[in-house]
UniProtKB/TrEMBL annotation:
SMART domains: DEXDc, HELICc. Residues 235-386 form the Helicase ATP-binding domain. Gene3D superfamilies: Endonuclease Chain A, P-loop containing nucleotide triphosphate hydrolases. It holds the Pfam family PLDc_2. PANTHER family: ATP-DEPENDENT HELICASE IRC3-RELATED (PTHR47396:SF1), TYPE I RESTRICTION ENZYME ECOKI R PROTEIN (PTHR47396). The lineage of its organism: Bacteria, Pseudomonadati, Bacteroidota, Cytophagia, Cytophagales. One of its GO terms (molecular function) is hydrolase activity. Residues 436-606 form the Helicase C-terminal domain. This is DUF3427 domain-containing protein. GO terms for cellular component: cytosol.
Length: 966
């Protein structure tokens, strides 16, 4: 088709001559960089190219394990599809890692060579795509940092096979490849020796250490997180407060931080309370590193009762007993630290807190949220010294990066692994084979696995460990019955460098969820359903501590038919909004959505299982809403408003409003003090504004409502200028009229639910001035109504602002955001909500929204089972309604639109994901594509339809394209 062929030239002209030239963007030249704020990585561009290529060529100076691990899943898929590639690396500076060569050599579809010259420093990637090639050249090597975090600059260009640039690239690569050494096991063995001899370790510690000073203390400098927390603690004490809670992800240095703060506080007597003796020993060592010989330190646990020491480290089991508490006076300790403070709701911890009266009490935990309804925050008067969760810790590089691989658990004799799978399925030979196969394939950073395997049952852990032993691996199973000595011995063996003594794997259920340090763990395997995002993060965290020589952690998660699979993206990405669209986008975006060099990878079936769990789960059960409401209330110390949920990154508060009609109605159902606070009219107004106006789909209503509530009136010109000044787009008079109509509920036609409104309006529009009515003023005089309505308005504006991008905004809609049919009617300025009649497509007011259910249900009418589908990211094949030809009124209007009819394309993947549609942009029909054809109806008779190809005004993002089409 001529127009499709012309598209390539339009892209080239737009890229190199004039950017305003109309083009699809599919072949436009692009600069590829790593930009954390924009969620963009060079890695994602290379993966996208690999996923759609017919053949590929890489020529890079450096290859590392981290770089290979970032692409491992993609290479595996290419091998399954028999897509061939050639990779050329170099021996320059002996930087390329032998272990990476070993692992890459196992791919039968990839031909691997190495240039042994000292001057080879190229970075180029070439991909064959039919008659076109995509070439990426620039600064990025095949290293994790170059692909994800470094400041890199790469140029991607598209060209035809006969072009000079592609011919030259193929020639250069061919010559270099031909002149390089074949990589085989013999070469790697020789290179390994050379690599080891020349390797210089530059260990990166979490804390910078210099010479020991005369006091015996090391000069240890706090990291950036600790400095900020120390400043906050000092401020809390300056305000006269005597307790605080530190929320800090596993491995981020909580114990060092507490030692630094104690150093600042200068206590005479200090008590450090933990739940296990080995943790007390580790804490004492940390404090000695900071204080040296300036303080005498000892234990008060087991057989050691060193109560005369300055700093005492004790277990909760010992210190909470009355006979031990009474050894000390209530004011004996100036400073008390309670580690793992999420346990502090237990009677033993409560007993300590009530008995002692320290000058300062510090609680520390990675997970303050409890599932048993206890309020930990109140123990510390809701004073949060600092909060750093997993994602932030990864972003500031104080944890080891990780590569997560979600793989499908085995189907055995047609039976899928499920929550209540039988023991023989969990420990079958086939499953053990699959676990070992994946453990060895995804491996670890140095090829020497030190693995933690989390199982669902103790019996499963023991049986799997036995199976691994029979296969030649060194493994052990630990449970709650294992003594501290057994646990410590197993940990020592896992971290050992002695091949005869070292363990490969420790199998366990949950005893290592918290309170244990095994920094050298480099592989975590999850063999159990995810029942809690908190536990998932705890188990992941076992391998995230940095260690000398540790490059990254490998995480292998076996995903079965688990109903709670939706918790996986919540845990990995830290998104606790329970917004289904957010979770889908996180899964689709994968590695782009995680900070640093970490990556998120799923095989196709595992990804579909997660999508299915998201679709099928009810995120609006009252018990879950109440739980999250209480958690936030405990945290902040008062009943939260919608904006508190937004500020603290908790559950999307619109879920509360959707459940009860308005957020106020939800709160009043569980807080007795709000009973009768609003009259019936106020309840009705708040309900309609909460669900029909402040849903963040069109911001103009919320912005105008905010002005009217706070200032009572505004001139129409001032309002238009305000929107332009804040958002950069100009709204029409028609839009302003539509906004006012919606604020008066004419659009949704529900005015009769407000009994006292009658013929009055809430918002008046006269002589170019928009103002609130007297009736509305009277309602706003109720402070509770005023407060909750304004909170709803702030939510609508804030939620819209979070997703707004002027580059993706087109006359009311944001490209690739989701909208209901009702939203679409409103944004297109239709007078009434016509969602019940606008199926397929509707032409009205010079607009034509087109709705496509991409994967259609099997039980729908045959005459509507159109083969609507993407041709590529820029073109979409679409069918008209049945019994149409090119002369039909609606088809003719679409064909001859001449830019007077707005054609907007909305697509959803299937009915399973709900009623909202992704806005794919406005489209134009390719004129020569109109074709009269037929489909069969339910009776097998031919029915006429018209097939059309639409050109999208912007190409679909790769992640969304894959999600919708696969």
């Amino acid at each position: 088709m001529a127009e499709l062929n012309d598209e390539f030239y339009n892209n080239i002209k737009a890229g190199f001559i004039e950017k305003s030239i109309d083009s699809s963007g599919e072949y436009i030249p692009r600069l590829l960089t790593n930009e954390r704020s924009a969620g963009v990585k060079v890695l994602s561009s290379i993966i996208a190219e690999l996923n759609s290529c017919e053949e590929f060529w890489f020529s890079v100076a450096f290859l590392t394990n981290g770089g290979l691990q970032s692409l491992l899943n993609t290479f595996k898929e290419l091998q399954n599809q028999k897509i061939k590639g050639k990779i050329l690396v170099s021996q320059y500076l002996n930087f390329t890692q032998p272990e990476a060569l070993k692992r890459l050599l196992k791919f039968k579809n990839i031909e691997l060579r190495i240039n042994t010259n000292d001057n080879f420093h190229s970075k180029g990637y070439l991909f064959k795509k039919g008659e076109y090639y995509n070439l990426i050249v620039g600064s990025s090597n095949l290293t994790a940092s170059a692909l994800s975090t470094n400041k890199e600059l790469n140029l991607k260009v598209s060209a035809k096979i006969d072009s000079y640039i592609i011919q030259k690239a193929l020639l250069e690569f061919g010559n270099d490849f031909k002149g390089s050494s074949i990589v085989d096991e013999a070469f790697i063995a020789r290179y390994q020796t050379e690599y080891e001899n020349g390797k210089k370790f530059q260990a990166e510690y979490l804390f910078k250490q210099i010479e020991i000073n005369p006091s015996g203390a090391r000069k240890i400098v706090p990291n950036e997180m600790q400095k900020e927390a120390l400043t906050n603690l000092k401020k809390i004490r300056s305000e006269g407060k005597n307790k605080a809670l530190l929320i800090s992800a596993t491995g981020t240095g909580k114990t060092f931080l507490s030692a630094f703060d104690a150093q600042e506080f200068k206590p005479n007597k200090l008590l450090f309370v933990v739940h296990r003796a080995n943790i007390a020993e580790a804490a004492l060592k940390t404090f000695k590193q900071v204080f040296g010989f300036n303080k005498e330190m000892g234990f008060y646990s087991g057989g050691r009762k060193e109560q005369d020491k300055d700093f005492i480290f004790s277990t909760i089991q010992t210190i909470s007993r009355t006979e031990h508490l009474e050894v000390f006076s209530p004011d004996h300790f100036d400073y008390i630290i309670i580690d793992e403070s999420h346990r502090a709701g237990a009677d033993s911890y409560q007993k300590i807190v009530k008995y002692f009266k320290p000058k300062f009490l510090l609680g520390m935990t990675a997970t303050p949220e409890r599932t048993d309804g206890l309020d930990i925050f109140s123990l510390y008067d809701h004073n949060i010294a600092y909060e750093i969760r997993l994602q932030k810790a990864l972003e500031i590089d104080i944890l080891s990066p990780f590569h997560y691989f979600g793989v499908t658990d085995l189907s055995i004799n047609g039976q899928q692994i499920e929550e209540k799978a039988e023991f023989n399925l969990l420990t079958s030979q086939e499953r053990v084979d699959r676990i070992i196969e994946n453990s060895l394939f995804y491996n670890c950073d140095d090829g020497n696995i030190r693995g933690l395997v989390f199982c669902s049952k103790v019996e499963e852990a023991k049986a799997l460990s036995e199976q691994f032993l029979k296969r030649g691996f060194k493994s052990i199973a630990l449970s709650g019955e294992s003594s501290d000595e057994q646990r410590n011995a197993a940990i020592d063996r896992l971290e050992s460098d002695d091949p005869a003594y070292k363990l490969d794997y420790i199998f366990t259920v949950d005893i290592f969820n918290e309170g244990i340090d095994i920094p050298r763990v480099n592989q975590v395997i999850m063999l159990r359903p995810t029942q809690s995002a908190i536990i998932f993060v705890q188990q992941l965290g076992r391998g995230l501590r940095k260690a000398e020589g540790k490059e990254y952690l490998t995480v292998i998660d076996f995903i079965g038919n688990y109903s709670n699979n939706f918790l996986i993206p919540i845990a990995l990405f830290g998104d606790t909004s329970y917004n289904k669209d957010n979770l889908r986008k996180l899964i689709a975006g994968g590695s782009n959505q995680i900070p640093g060099t970490s990556t998120i990878n799923f095989d196709k079936i595992a990804k579909e299982k997660i999508y299915a769990a998201i679709d099928q789960s009810n995120f609006s059960l009252k018990k879950d809403l109440v739980k999250d409401y209480d958690l936030l209330k405990y945290k902040i110390g008062y009943s939260p408003m919608m904006m508190d949920f937004m500020y603290h990154g908790s559950r999307d508060p619109i879920l509360f409003a959707e459940y009860s009609g308005s957020y106020f109605q939800f709160v009043s159902s569980i807080e007795s003090n709000l009973s009768g606070a609003l009259n019936l009219d106020q309840l009705a107004i708040l309900k309609l504004y909460s669900t029909e106006v402040n849903n963040a789909k069109r911001v103009e209503e919320s912005e105008l409502l905010h002005i009217l509530i706070t200032k009572e009136k505004v001139k129409i010109g001032e309002f238009i200028e305000l929107i332009y000044g804040k958002y950069g787009f100009v709204i029409s008079i028609e839009t302003v009229v539509s906004v006012i109509s919606n604020l008066n509920f004419y659009f949704i036609n529900k005015r009769n639910s407000i009994k006292g409104l009658g013929t009055n309006d809430l918002v008046n529009f006269e002589d170019g001035v928009i103002s609130i009515s007297e009736y509305f003023k009277i309602q706003l005089s109720n402070p509770t109504f005023h407060s909750y309505l304004l909170d709803s308005v702030y939510y609508g504006i804030t939620r819209f602002d979070q997703t707004f991008d002027l580059d993706k905004y087109l006359d009311g809609f944001l490209i690739h955001q989701k909208y209901s049919r009702k939203d679409i009617c409103r944004i297109l300025n239709w007078e009434k909500n016509e969602e019940s009649t606008m199926y397929g497509y509707s032409i009205k007011y010079n607009t034509c929204p087109i709705f496509v259910n991409y994967h259609k249900d099997e039980n729908i009418a045959a005459s509507t089972k159109f083969e609507d589908k993407f041709i590529n990211n820029s073109y979409f094949q679409w069918f008209s309604k049945p019994r149409r030809n090119i002369e039909s009124k609606d088809v003719s209007a679409i064909k001859n639109h001449n830019n007077e009819l707005r054609l907007s394309l909305f697509i959803k993947k299937s009915n399973g994901e709900g009623s909202d549609f992704y806005y794919m942009g406005d489209v134009k029909p390719v004129q020569e594509s109109f074709e009269e054809t037929t489909i069969l109806d339910d009776h097998g008779k031919s029915v006429s339809v018209v097939k059309v190809i639409f050109k999208l005004n912007q190409p679909v993002e790769d992640s969304l394209y894959d999600y919708l089409t696969k």
